[in-house]
Amino acid sequence: MFLDHVTFALRDLDDAVEQVENSLGVRFEAPTRTIPGITGRVAVLDSGFIEMMAVHNREDAQLAPFGQKFVDYLDTRGNGIFSTTLRTEDISSYKSGLPEDVRHCGPITTWVPQPDGTRINFSSVFFGQYHLTPWVIAYEGALPTVPGDLALRTVDVNAPELKSEVDRYAELYGIPQDRITMNAHEAVMELSEGLLRLRPGTPAGFSTVGIVGPGMSFTIGFDGSKMEIDKNPTGDIESDEP
Predict the structure, then answer these.
(1) Average pLDDT in the 34-40 region?
(2) How many Å apart are CA 144 and CA 15, to the nearest integer?
(3) Fewer C-beta within 10 Å: the chain N or C terminus?
(4) Is pTM, for the whole model, over 0.90?
């Protein structure tokens, strides 16, 4: 299981894109509208990518379940991390390995356009509220390579009940116990690429994103509804030692 991408819900897409581009030195691709009523832009990293989304037509967005959830998120929480997506190589094997009592939706097959006019096809499985539990995705065919030195490294998750949420994540994503380090303050779950870091806190859901590069790291989070980007010149994302 790999940390694939994070999706931000934003009221002002252009402002957020400019802030991230200026802080990280990345460049976002041209806007796309693959979801009714919602405009998205993507910045591909050397490993993983960042997706920014905003509503351009509220009525159209509310016609589909994803769009309705997206609108509800912005109405109730404002700017924030709407979803996190993990990647597997075989979605069918992943789904067949889920416990029988786990409620999920999918796999749903769809596609996204690329700047050169081609499409990337993928299938995904998700659980309940988008902003509370990571999706799982599998791509059909090879992904384009993008030269660069930044990688999506961590997603921090507020978990009001830490132990039960750690157990749930381990069950949903097949994370073995020897890849989970836990104390009273946090649980670090090691994926094949990337980390999920669960910490006691509210509101429940994804709180910050960590991106690393040579000699540097960035943390993207929100103070209330305001995006904040912090740079750490050491290249290490700070963590409590379990």
Answers:
(1) 93
(2) 27
(3) C
(4) yes
